[in-house]
Amino acid sequence: MAGEEEEEEEEEEEEEEEEEEEEEEEEEEEEEEEEEEEEEEEEEEEEEEEEEGEEEEEEAGEEDDEEGGLAEEGEVEGGGAEDGEAEGFEEEGGEAEAEAEVDFGFVE
């Protein structure tokens, strides 16, 4: 009888150990799945950030175009002064010179 009891106890211990091992394996698998999900989420976030950055760059480019910032092919950026004109001054040479001297702190 004593031998049978020992065998039963050993079997119970083995079953308990097997159950514990199975639980540990399940926990490890769950942890691995969680890690994989986190990595996927991080990758998705990075992709979204990159896409947002590209969209912001495109929007900024469009705003520049609307404001006259970037000239498209075939356009001249800024317009500039025509022949005989000083940019930012009136056509009369005397007034343009006087304004230029005042801007630099010199007075005639």
The number of strands is 0
Structural class of the secondary elements? Answer: mainly alpha
For the termini, the CA-CA separation is 127 Å
User: In one word, what is the shape?
Assistant: rod-shaped
Supply the number of helical segments.
Answer: 2
Cα-based radius of gyration, to the nearest Å? 40 Å
Low-confidence stretches: none
Spell the H/E element sequence: HH
What is the oligomeric state here?
single chain
- Report the mean per-residue pLDDT as an integer: 77
* Main sheet record: none
**Strand content range:** under 5%
Helix content: over 70%
Describe the structure.
With 108 residues, the protein is mainly α. It has a domain at 1-57. 70% of the residues lie in helices and 0% in strands. It has 2 helices and no strands. The longest helix has 65 residues, at 2-66. It is rod-shaped.
Question: Concise description?
Answer:
This protein has 108 residues and is mostly helical. It is built from two helices and no strands.
Write the SSE topology.
Blueprint: H1 2-66, H2 93-103
Descriptors:
single chain; 108 residues; mainly alpha; 2 helices; 70% helix
